[in-house]
Structure formats: structure tokens, C-alpha cells
Specification:
Radius of gyration: 35 Å
Oligomer: single chain
Number of helices: 24
Structural class: alpha+beta
Strand order of the largest sheet: 5-4-3-6-2-1-7-8
Distance between the termini: 78 Å
Shape: globular
């Protein structure tokens, strides 16, 4: 069989940069194309659509890809293995480039054998491409194999004499390869009855863990922003060359690029969805872009960067995530661009092509996503789908406002990421978003109850009866029973009938009934519902429940306790917590502190440990509550997150129509202005330095402690529910104004200091900062 071009060119193709998974994907694309043709033809196909990849079992093993496709004739096989030839329509197929087969096989090994057969053929026919044997006569050896069943059909590709490094990667990374291919072909494997096996194990589509169609948030308390936005935009049909794939400008009978007359009218459509992931991640967020069902870009983040059309190259400004970039993001999507050309490696689109630019404009627009930046630059409000999602979900506060699960105090990002892993592992409980949704509702319930408890603690438990009677105009000497006592020398007939006491024997409540009553008046505490223990002590699975206000937690002796454990089956325990107990209300103990004390006693007995109580508690906390550690890195990150949110709100207020950003900038000292300028340059915002004081953008870069002085200097701009919910303008006394303002600035100073100097903080300072973070978050407007 003749092969063009020479073996020397074929060998050089092996030097083109293709990762191992890309080489395998090139060999999977072609059978998937064949399967799609069968589906389009609507003929019956009883043998199924299966591609199997056999991985090398040793460095000297082979890679084999076989399929149950239609097989090829000798003539088509001869064309298929010829470098540079492609029988594929450039706009309908996955296998877009004729040299993909040659590149992938030459990169994997020195010898490739292709065997193919059709239903009814009497044997397998094929060709052997041996890069060490083929000369410039372009001749490759024809090969045949006997065929046991004439009805069999399909193609086999066997690559041996593998390149050692790639053979070793394939041998050791079967699971990783399945995961990558499951992501790349996720849409095809979900939408079509295709099966792909790698190393004998079926490849499962890697689906997005996103919020459901019916979830949404309220932006500014009124505008509904959905967590899932379907995209389906039909563009005007175009004329494309079937040979080179180039779209034509205007009407012509021949291709403007290759001169071919093989032109056809093609559909151009942008479809898919944009949405919100159920968890925050540092890398797993962004938009997947697909062509003909295969993902070309995965977790792509370029639409989150605004490219100023009037700026210079390299001055692009990332817009999401920025202030909380260390936490990652959660905006995701899956967009099909079947009409947009891609590079030969199928790992990028032709970004200069007008079809790509049209898609970008449709999805994110030409204006910045950030409303304030857009307004300052003279752009109208960005109303594209991505801008809408950005507006509703750019922040990651726990609760309904941002659709983020929490523990009543803060987001539980580590837990939600773990739930995401369980979603991908196929755990049935995590396939829908219900688990995440309930965690959001529990956060709101715990938060609401905490505020109710605070309110109840500040109100006397018994009413002042004399004051009430006085307010009603009744005599103040009426006894509490409500019966009016006769005066001396007078006769008063009582209207209250005498009651004959009746002895009633009360039924004693059993322990199980008491616990059931407690449990019926509780709500789960998500953060403290987890496994607890230590390798040397064993583990128990704990479900922690908080009693609702008004209920007291009693032990078996009738004594009130802050925490009560109930042994369930096996290693499962239920922990009941009384939030109104004096240990929490008067002495400020943390729920986790006393829960650990109770668990330490249980685990000590079970493990027959001779550890001391303090040693037990310390070990269990270090093992089971690692994320509660008081270290400067963790608490500093919490402080900076909150500061970033406050900066965003302050900048938004100052940037509104009538906002006094010039006055705010004037309150900065010369040293702070220099520090602000340096911070802008360090953040790559060189172009904004010249606008210092001309808009509110400087707020994102001022020293953290300067925020305290801005709030102190301009309280009427930020209090009264604007940024902070505390009253100010309506408070009549100067001392009252000062007190309300101090509630904010005192905590803000702590958070700003810790956010700047976290690495040098002592443990007491870290505890104080964490408390200030919680108190300051309660002071934010919209946190009621």
C-alpha cells in the first residue's frame, strides 16, 4: 500500500507536541464519527456502539483501540492512513484533520497495524506502518487476518514498540486517562448510546455538579438571577468549504482559500448553558467549549477577563474572581460552537476568527462584567448571560443571598467540595442539589436562632406586672393572681369559683420519649455533623442537633446539661446541644468545645485509653476539626475575605451617582496614597493609577486600616443600612451616634489589622480577630 509522504515526514510527525491522552483521543474520534454517521442514517445497528482501548501492561506492551463500527474498504483504508488526507467533512466530524491519526500513532510508537473488516467480508484487511522499515518508496506492507464470523465488523489499531516514557504513562495512569476522556467526551457519552472502555473499565461521563434549573438568588433583594441560564442563539446561515473548512465572505462559487468548489450552506448556532457550581474550587470552574460534541476547552476562564478594545495587549483585566481569588470560583458552563474553527491539536479555537468573536460578544459582551467599571468607562449596563450570573453570584457569602451552604456563621467550602467528590463518585444522595440546598437553609435557621437567642437574652424573662397594670390604668396593688382583695370593713363577693383539688397521677416520660421530644424540636448543625476521633482512639460518626429556643436539655437525672450524647447503632451518635445554656450564653463557650469533652469520654472508654482528658480533647480536635485551627494563614484569609467584601460595598456606594469618591480619597494620608498606588501597580492595574481620586476604584487597593478612617470620617455614607446596618443619621444624641459607629469601627480595626499582619498574631489576637470577624459580618447591611 502506498503511503504519502515519506517515512521521514511520518517520523517527524511524532515530534509534534501531543499529550498521551490526546494521542488516544485522536484514535477514539474516528470511530465516534463513524457511529454518528450510523445514527444519522437511521439504519438498525444491533451490535451496539463500543470503543475499547487496551493499555500496555508492560513497557514493551502494546496499545490497541478497537471499535464496532462499519469497517472500511481497501480503498478507503489506503486514503485514511495517508498523511495529509482527510475524508472528513470539516464541519460535521470530530476527526477534523487527516494527519491526526499519523501524529498520534507516530508519537506513541514505531509500528502501527490497522485491521478493518465490514459485515460480510471474509477476512480482516489492513496495513502495517513500520517507521523503521518504510523507505522513500512509500510502500507499507498489506496484512490480513482470518475472520471467524463473517458478520463481525469494525476496526482495530495496534501500536507497539512504544516510546518508553509514553508507554509507562499509559501503563500507570489508566484511571487518570478515563477521567480525562470522560470529561472530553462527557456530552457524547451522555447524549448518545456510545460506550468507551479503557483498560477494561467503562469510561463514565464527567458531569458538571451544578445547581438545578429552579434555583436563584435575589440581587439587591428584588432582581431574580437564576443559577442556570440556557443558551440557544441561531445565527445567520453561512457558506463553508467542505474541504478546508473556511467560512466564505459573500457569495462565490469557489473557496477563497483553497479554490475548491465544494461549498455548502451551513447552520451556525451557539447553544448550551451557563450556570453555578455547587461548590467553590481554585481550578475547577470556568466554561467548557465544545465542537461537534467533543470538548475543545475545559474549565476555560478567558471570558472572565475583560479585554479593553482601546487598551494595549497585555493590559487585560481579570474580573472574576478577583477580590476572593484565593478561594477560586464557581461560575461554569457548557457551550457548543460547532461552526467555529479549531487548531490542529483540538485544544483551542481560532480566537481571531470572527465566529469566535461573535460567540464571545453574545456570551459576555464587550463591556466589563463589573457594573461600576462599565459605568465609569461609558458602557451601558452589560445584560449578557455571563454578566447576569456575575452580578448574582460573584460573592460567596453563606446563605440564601449567594446560594452558598454554611454552618450558621461562615461558608463550609471544604464540606461542599467533599460533597462534589461524592457527586462524581456516583453517591445517590449527592446527585441532585438537595443536600446543598438543605445546608443553605440550615445556615439561615442557625443564624436566625442565634439572633433570637441574643434578643431573648436582652429581654427580662418575667414581665414587670406592676408597670403593666399602671399602664392599663388599674390599681397597682392588684396581686399577681388577678383577684381583687377586699378592703377593711367592706364585703366583696368573689366571682372566682372555688376549685376542688384533684389528684392526677402524671405519666413518667421515658428516656427514649424525652430524646424523641428533643429531636423533634431541633435543627442540624452541618459543621459539627461529621466523623470524630483519632487513629489511636477510633472514630464515631456524629450527627449534631441544636435545640430550638424555649427547650431545656436534661440528662437522665433531670439536671440541665449543655450537650447530651445519645448512642445509636454501631458507631453512630446523636449529639444534642442546648444553645441557651449558660455555658454558651454567659461564658461564651463554643459548641465544639463541650461536644469534644463528651466525645472524649466516650472514646476513652471504647479505646481503654490512659490518655488524660485534656490530651484526648486536644488529639480529637487536631484530627477532626483541622479547619478550625487558630493559625495566621486561615484567620488572615477569613479577614481578607471580609475586607474584600466591605471594599466592594464601599466602592459601590462611592461610585453611585452622587457618590463622593473625591472626598473619600482626600481623607487618605500621603503615605496611604503612595501605598495605594503601589498596590495598584503590584496588582497589574497600571492603567488605573492615573485615575486615582477620579473614581472609586482606589478603594480596592487602599491599606486595610484606611478603611476604618473612611468609615469614621464619612459615617452618613456607610451607616443606616447602606454598608453597615447600624443606625446613625436618625440617632439624636452624639453619644448614641458614637456608640453605634464604634460597634462597626472597633471590629473593623481588628479585622483590618489581622488581615494585614496575620503572620505575626498571637493566639489571643487570633481569637479576638475571629470574634471580630463574626461580629462585623453581623453588622453588614442585608445580613438580617
Amino acid at each position: 500500500m502506498k503511503i504519502t509522504p515519506s517515512a521521514r515526514v511520518l517520523s517527524m510527525l511524532g515530534e509534534i507536541d501531543f499529550d498521551e491522552w490526546q494521542c488516544v483521543a485522536e484514535l477514539v474520534d474516528n470511530p465516534f464519527d463513524d457511529f454518528l454517521d450510523v445514527l444519522r442514517s437511521e439504519v438498525e445497528w444491533p451490535d451496539g456502539f463500543t470503543v475499547s482501548v487496551t493499555l500496555p501492561s508492560s513497557p514493551k506492551g502494546v496499545l490497541e483501540v478497537r471499535d464496532t463500527g462499519r469497517g472500511m474498504s481497501y480503498e478507503r483504508l489506503a486514503r485514511a492512513v495517508r498523511a495529509g488526507w482527510s475524508g472528513n467533512d470539516m464541519h460535521d466530524k470530530l476527526g477534523l484533520f487527516g494527519m491526526g491519526f499519523n501524529i498520534s500513532t507516530a508519537r506513541l510508537g514505531r509500528r502501527t497495524r490497522i485491521l478493518t473488516t465490514r459485515a460480510g467480508d471474509t477476512e480482516w484487511i489492513g496495513v502495517e506502518i513500520d517507521l523503521d522499515q518504510i523507505k522513500d518508496d512509500f510502500e507499507a506492507n498489506d496484512i490480513t487476518e482470518p475472520k471467524g464470523n463473517p458478520s463481525h465488523h469494525g476496526t482495530r489499531i495496534i501500536v507497539d514498540r512504544l516510546q518508553p516514557t509514553r508507554a509507562e504513562w499509559l501503563r500507570r495512569n489508566g484511571a487518570s486517562l478515563r477521567n480525562i476522556l470522560g470529561s472530553v467526551y462527557s456530552w457524547i457519552l451522555t447524549e448518545h448510546p456510545f460506550e468507551l472502555y479503557v483498560g477494561g473499565t467503562q469510561v463514565k461521563p464527567v458531569r458538571h455538579c451544578r445547581w438545578g434549573h429552579d434555583r436563584y438568588v435575589l440581587y439587591n433583594g428584588k432582581e431574580r438571577v437564576p443559577a442556570y441560564i440556557p443558551i440557544d442563539e441561531k445565527l445567520q446561515d453561512g457558506i463553508a468549504c467542505r474541504d478546508c473548512g473556511e467560512w466564505q465572505i459573500g457569495s462565490s462559487e469557489v473557496c477563497s482559500v483553497c479554490g475548491s468548489g465544494n461549498l455548502a450552506v451551513r447552520d451556525r448556532r451557539i447553544h448550551g448553558w451557563l450556570g453555578v457550581q455547587r461548590y467553590l474550587d481554585k481550578t475547577e470552574y470556568g466554561i467548557d467549549f465544545l465542537r461537534n460534541g467533543r470538548k475543545i476547552l475545559r474549565w476555560d476562564k478567558q471570558l472572565f477577563t475583560w479585554n479593553n478594545p482601546d487598551g494595549v495587549a497585555g493590559n487585560e483585566e481579570p474580573e472574576y474572581p478577583v477580590e476572593l481569588a484565593h478561594q477560586g470560583g464557581r461560575l461554569i458552563g457548557e457551550i457548543h460552537l460547532d461552526h467555529v474553527p479549531v487548531t490542529y491539536q483540538k485544544d483551542a479555537f481560532e480566537y481571531g476568527d470572527r465566529s469566535w468573536l461573535t460567540a464571545v460578544e453574545l456570551l459576555r459582551g464587550v463591556a466589563p462584567l463589573q457594573p461600576q467599571r462599565a459605568s465609569k468607562l461609558g458602557y451601558p449596563e452589560n445584560e449578557t448571560p455571563l454578566a447576569l450570573l456575575f452580578k448574582g453570584f460573584r460573592r460567596n457569602d453563606a446563605g440564601l443571598r449567594c446560594l452558598v451552604p454554611g454552618d450558621g456563621h461562615k461558608p463550609i467550602h471544604a464540606d461542599t467540595r467533599d460533597w462534589g467528590r461524592k457527586f462524581r463518585a456516583g453517591a445517590s444522595e449527592f446527585q441532585t442539589d438537595e443536600h446543598w440546598w438543605q445546608a443553605v437553609l440550615r445556615h439561615e435557621e442557625i443564624k436566625k436562632r442565634g439572633k433570637e437567642v441574643k434578643t431573648a437574652a436582652s429581654v427580662p424573662t418575667q414581665p414587670d406586672e406592676q408597670a403593666v397594670l399602671g399602664a392599663l390604668g388599674l390599681p397597682a396593688d392588684i396581686p399577681a393572681s388577678g383577684a381583687v382583695q377586699p378592703k377593711t370593713g367592706s364585703t366583696v363577693v368573689s366571682t372566682v369559683p372555688a376549685q376542688t383539688p384533684v389528684a392526677i397521677k402524671e405519666k413518667t416520660e421515658t428516656r427514649s420519649e424525652r430524646l424523641a421530644r428533643y429531636e423533634s424540636a431541633t435543627s442540624p448543625h452541618a459543621y459539627l455533623s461529621r466523623p470524630f476521633g483519632h487513629p489511636d482512639l477510633g472514630y464515631v460518626k456524629v450527627r449534631t442537633l441544636l435545640l430550638k429556643p424555649g427547650e431545656q436539655l436534661l440528662d437522665d437525672n433531670g439536671l440541665r446539661v449543655p450537650v447530651l450524647l445519645d448512642q445509636r447503632s454501631g458507631n453512630e451518635l446523636t449529639a444534642l446541644v442546648d444553645p441557651e445554656h449558660a455555658a454558651f450564653q454567659r461564658f461564651g463557650a463554643d459548641y465544639a468545645d463541650l461536644l469534644l469533652v463528651e466525645l472524649a469520654a466516650v472514646l476513652k472508654v471504647r479505646a481503654r485509653s490512659d490518655w488524660s482528658p485534656s490530651q484526648l480533647v486536644a488529639a480529637i480536635r487536631a484530627e477532626s476539626l483541622q479547619d478550625s485551627a487558630l493559625d495566621g494563614t486561615t484567620v488572615g484569609a477569613e479577614a481578607r475575605d471580609l475586607l474584600a467584601e466591605i471594599r466592594e460595598r464601599v466602592a459601590e456606594v462611592l461610585g453611585r451617582s452622587g457618590g463622593d469618591y473625591a472626598t473619600a480619597y482626600g481623607h487618605l494620608s500621603d503615605e496611604e496614597k503612595i501605598a495605594t498606588e503601589e498596590a495598584m501597580i503590584a496588582a497589574g492595574r497600571v492603567g488605573l493609577v492615573g485615575r486615582l481620586g477620579l473614581d472609586s476604584g482606589f478603594v480596592h487597593h487602599v491599606p486595610a486600616l484606611a478603611l476604618v478612617r473612611l468609615v469614621e470620617a464619612m459615617p452618613t455614607s456607610f451607616m443606616d443600612g447602606v454598608v453597615f446596618r447600624g443606625p446613625y443619621a436618625g440617632v439624636s444624641s452624639p453619644s448614641g451616634k458614637a456608640l453605634s459607629l464604634a460597634r462597626v469601627t472597633g471590629c473593623l480595626a481588628d479585622v483590618a489589622t489581622l488581615g494585614t499582619f496575620a503572620g505575626e498574631a498571637t493566639a489571643p489576637q487570633l481569637r479576638r480577630a475571629r470574634l471580630s470577624i463574626a461580629l462585623l459580618r453581623d453588622e453588614l447591611a442585608g445580613e438580617e
